[in-house]
Every structure is written in structure tokens, then in C-alpha cells.
Amino acid sequence: MYKFTNFAFMQFRFPHSHLLGTDQLTADDISVIFTLAEKQRKSIDSKQYPPVSTPGLRVVLAFFEDSTRTRVSFEKAAQRIGAECVVFSASGSSVSKGESLTDTMLTLEAMGTDVFVVRHREDGVIHDIANTVNASCINAGDGRSNHPTQALLDAFSLYRAGVDFRGFKVGILGDVKHSRVARSNVQLLQTLGAECFMYGPPELMPEDDVFKAVQQVGSINELVECTDAVIVLRIQKERMQETVLSSLSEYAEHYCLQPKHLQHKPDLHVLHPGPMNREIEIATAVADGPNSLILEQVRNGVAIRMALLNLLGEWH
Ligand code: CP
Question: ∠ at Cα 6 (154, 227), nearest 5°?
């Protein structure tokens, strides 16, 4: 079993001032984040928030693409650690007048920002932003590349469910090709010692190096059979260049996780990053059933993001 080491948080400085991708995190970094997130999860459950841990921290959520879970949970996380938090949405801003991304970020920083949380539809843009501003940057999802806080909250949800990651097997189902969640999860789970498998329509299977050690299987039954947890992915039509799927009903017929698939796997953990297309990629009976960790993922998202703001806030 992977040992989550004890540490004295007050004498500790997180080695990273930015969180841009899961590839930068070691098992020890993840252990630190989980240890602190566990404390924060307990504070959320008891509604007993610790004294303001990062007084005066100034957080700006800069969202250039839509979001519900990530944006709201970062806002709640910032509030709960006592930070000042401003939410900037590109829609309704001077971006519509042609203001560049660089000018937008420098303008927001000039008003006073210690930590930027950025979501953007373009791959890798978070790296350009981190090279432009002095503030810490957290990637809240860039294109199809990375969604590190989602991967952290997914693994944290499994950890809280009692999972030992050494030798643990995780299946990824659906539109893997366009999924930043899949890329970040594969990197993070492999760092923790887990093994990953995938299944989905052939045209939605990825070819990039991140998936080199991910075995592709031939059916949902096979995926469920050989794994301990399955992460179901959303069909990301907004990232598809052309109509790659002939029909959603055909997709559902072959790739929707249904109760019949879990009949022989009563202990399988089922995750979905949301938002869900119910009855297309996951049946409601599974999403809302006893195997589902989906709402736990949402709850843990706030705790993970509190921990990250605590850790990166130490740099300011
Ligand atoms: N999982 C996720 O990133 O959801 P949102 O797009 O609602 O933030």
C-alpha cells in the first residue's frame, strides 16, 4: 500500500508555486495534498472551519470557458480559507471588444492577485499565462490537455473510499480522445501505482503518449471485469472537429454504463467528472446507485481546492 506520510504542515512549503498539470506531481506531493484535503473535508463536514489560514490571500478565478463544479467549488474553497475571491468570466467582459488574453491577465493582476485559477479552451495556454504573470496559477482545465484538480479529487474520492492504489485497476470509458480529465487521471493514477484500462468508440480512442501504458479492451463487460473502478467520461461534442458520432442512441447502445454491467461487480466504484449525459454515457440507475462516487467527487472537490489554495497561498 502507498504510505501517505505524516508531515507538519506549518513547517512545510509545497515545492510548486503553480499547479499546471498532473505530470509535475510526485507521490509525496499528492500525499501532502490529500493529508491537508482530509483535514479540510472534516472541517466542511463539521462546518467548523479552521481560523483563517491565509489572511489577505487574493484569488481570481479567470474562466474563459463555461463551468459549474470547478468554478463554484474554487469560489467556496477560497471563501472557506478566508481568501478574497473575485470571479472573472470572459463572457460579458472586454474580451468581446478584442482585448488579448495577455492584456486581460495583466489587467486582472494589476488590481491585486496572488493566485489565478484559469480555465481556457486552448491547450497549454496556462503555461503562457504562468510565464506572463507573477501570481501563482492553477489550471482549472485547458483544452483537452489537463485538468489536474479534477484528477486529484477523483483519486482523493477513491482514497477516502479505502482504496490502496498499488495494483489498483481503473477503467476509463467513453470519449477518451478529447478528455483532459482522462489525461490528468492517467498521469496521476500511474504516479500512485495504479494501472489504467480504456474502452470507447474506436474514433474516440487517443493516440498520444500519455496513454502508452493504458491497455485498450474490447467491451464494457471486459472493462468492468478487469478493473476495480470505472471513470465514465462525457461525450465532448464541443471539442470534436467534425461529426464523429453517427447517433447518440447508437452510442448509448454500445458505450452506456448500465446496471447489467455491474451485476457481477458489486464493489466496483463508479466515477464521472460531470456534467453527465444521463442514459447516453451512464444510466441514471448507475449514476444515482450504490456504486456511484459522483456526488462524493463534488464534495471532495471543495476540500482538494481548499488544500491547494492553502499550499500555493504559502508562496505569497
Ligand atoms: N468536472 C468539471 O470540470 O465540471 P465543470 O465543467 O462543471 O467545472
Answer: 30
Supply the residue whose CA is at minimum distance from atom 3 of ligand 1.
70
Whole-number mean pLDDT of the chain? 93
Does pTM surpass 0.90? yes
Residues of the chain under the 70 pLDDT cut = 1-11, 238-245
9-147+298-313 — its CATH code? Answer: 3.40.50.1370
Homologous superfamily of domain range 162-292: Aspartate/ornithine carbamoyltransferase (3.40.50.1370)
Answer whether 274 contacts ligand 1 (Cβ < 6 A).
yes
C-alpha cell at 316: 505569497
Each domain of the chain, given as residue ranges in start order, spans 9-147+298-313, 162-292
Which pLDDT score, from 0 to 100, does residue 1 have? 32
- Edge-first strand order for the sheet with 215-216 is 215-216, 195-199, 169-173, 229-232, 269-271
Q: How many CB atoms lie within 10 A of CB 184?
A: 28
